[in-house]
């Protein structure tokens, strides 16, 4: 004879349908006007922060490259000029001549 399936055992309580609207305190709280406005404010703040970070990054890139192109060659030229002046002063001291008047 074929074995019959056992009946009995532990039965679980029926689960609630989580998609029911307005079911429970948490669902009501999540649909409240304050929570909705808070989520919208957080969303807006994140959007503004993202835009600000993007534009700040672009501005930093522009400032950095402008500094490299315009200021660094000027600093190098001024350093060369200073080294040349020091060399002339050292040569004048070695030869015993008076330092050049400015």
TrEMBL record:
Annotated region (Disordered), positions in chain: 1-23
Any matching Pfam family: Tom22
Protein's cellular compartments: Mitochondrion outer membrane
Composition-biased stretches (Basic and acidic residues): 13-23
One GO process term, biological-process aspect: intracellular protein transport
Coiled coil segments of this chain: none
Superkingdom per UniProt: Eukaryota
Keyword tags: Membrane, Mitochondrion, Mitochondrion outer membrane, Protein transport, Receptor, Translocation, Transmembrane, Transmembrane helix, Transport
Family: Belongs to the Tom22 family.
Name assigned to this protein: Uncharacterized protein
Species this chain originates from: Malus domestica
Lineage of the species this protein comes from: Eukaryota, Viridiplantae, Streptophyta, Embryophyta, Tracheophyta
């Amino acid at each position: 004879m074929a074995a019959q399936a056992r009946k009995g055992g532990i039965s679980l309580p029926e689960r609630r349908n989580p998609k029911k609207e307005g079911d429970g305190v948490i669902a009501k709280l999540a649909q409240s006007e304050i929570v909705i406005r808070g989520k919208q404010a957080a969303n807006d703040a994140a959007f503004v922060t993202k835009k600000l970070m993007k534009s700040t990054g672009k501005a930093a890139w522009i400032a950095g490259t402008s500094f490299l192109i315009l200021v660094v060659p000027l600093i190098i030229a001024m350093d060369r000029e200073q080294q040349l002046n020091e060399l002339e002063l050292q040569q004048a001291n070695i030869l015993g001549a008076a330092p050049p008047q400015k």
